[in-house]
User: Fold this.
Amino acid sequence: MSNTAIQNELNRQMDTLPLEQQQQVLQFARALSISTVRGVSGASLLRFGGAIPLDDLKIMEQAIEDGSEQVNLSW
Assistant:
């Protein structure tokens, strides 16, 4: 779909909305235009592969298994 087609469809949809919802769409569009991607690519994390010793990973895995299916009602 071309930019013009998208703009035309957006205008058609906006015409069907009440003013309050049109303002919400505008706020959303503005938020999209200023949002930035956060984080890093998975490829840049590969250098950390193998950084945790196998024994520690086994301890972590056991702790996860032991804690699974338990509910902490005090939270």
